[in-house]
Amino acid sequence: MTEAPAHPALWPAPSASGAVDATVTVPGSKSVTNRALVLAALAAEPGWLRRPLRSRDTLLMAQALRALGVGIEEGVGPDGEGESWRVIPAGLHGPATVDVGNAGTVMRFLPPVATLADGPVRFDGDPRSHERPLHGVIDALRALGARIDDEGRGALPLTVHGSGALDGGRVEIDASSSSQFVSALLLSGPRFNQGVEVRHIGARLPSMPHIRMTVDMLRAVGAQVDEPETGGEPNVWRVSPSAVLGRDITIEPDLSNAQPFLAAALVTGGRVTVPDWPFTTTQPGDALRTIFTGMGGSCELTDRGLTFTGSGRVRGIDVDLSEVGELTPGIAAVAALADSPSTLRGVAHLRLHETDRLAALTKEINNLGGDVTETEDGLHIRPRPLHGGVFHTYDDHRMATAGAIIGLAVEGVEIENVATTAKTLPDFPRMWTTMLGAES
Ligand SMILES: O=C(O)C1=C[C@@H](OP(=O)(O)O)[C@@H](O)[C@H](O)C1
Ligand SMILES: C=C(OP(=O)(O)O)C(=O)O
What we know:
By secondary structure, the protein is α/β, with parallel strands linked by helices. The chain is built from 12 helices and 23 strands. The strands form 6 sheets. Strands 2-15-17-16 form a 4-stranded mixed sheet, covered by helices on one side. A 4-stranded mixed sheet has the order 4-5-3-14. Shikimate-3-phosphate binds next to helix 3 and helix 5.
């Protein structure tokens, strides 16, 4: 957690005058868009991404791939419907520079891709990107035959000296600080000479749905993947060397970004429908159907989408969020407004996310009069009457949306730097005021 700025730009979080009743169309998933971009760039033929997310994290991914020589064109596609990206793969070239911003997906998924470039690729990003764990990717790539210059930091900034190909093969990593280490190695795996076998040797592995997403998306582009959940050895993933097929893929709405809108239904005793909610998905946000139902609402999934209805009562919850860590800030915000205490567990790795999310949530909710304590791997939240004040975001999009949830029920909450939602949901302030029926 960095120091809060002295003169922050403040956004008065609108409070809800009654029960919300809205349909909210949520843009595409960050995690699916950035995987689809990487796989399309590694393919042997052009492909399409339909309804991609356009936000800071995905535009950084597209910009980086373009810097390596990949063509990414704006298009409407053969069916003439909706916005899309047409990705035209090409030989990957260095020298190139990549700005990762503070995108975990860019800083972790692209160094393996860069080993396939024919020259040096320099990676750097926001100051926070220097602090986020990357050692799993760096050490693994070296073990698989790559030359990487990180001046001994084990973190950004660094240069991958691509030589046009990577041997690949077997590697052990400790991915307890981020599932993205595993996803990163698997995504480029088909293009390594021997494919890749990743063995996780750490005590725990967070965000399993995101690893499932990687495996599913690899299979969808023709890769052969052996993995624990379909009969493979525990903690071992194997990707065989193969061509990657160019596909036409429609990106699902970002279910983690649907969270604040569903939370609004829960907190105000209202109703929110999110169209195009998938019937089956690997996105962790799908767990909100269970978690928010456990906190007092109910939901219905139909062809029209997911309709979530609040009951007027918000209950506390005791829940292990290790699989769905990115939902923690929004759940903490709802828990602070509940009528009984909550315990959120299994999320120690959130200390190394966009900011130290456990420290940031504790500090900011307590600044509004709350009673939150950090545990070794999560938070205890005892609801208390809250008051207005500034809610700092520490350049974390999910802190901004968490503050907005609290603002629904508490007058006078001001979000510092709401623009940080641009990381994954640039239109958040307008969507929020529209949902509330206020002027945008
Ligand atoms: O692979 C992905 O797309 C993601 C994996 C998770 O990372 P960690 O395993 O580092 O928590 C998640 O928190 C992040 O928002 C997106
Ligand atoms: C942890 C997150 O992002 P990143 O992909 O940067 O890790 C997040 O979006 O909550």
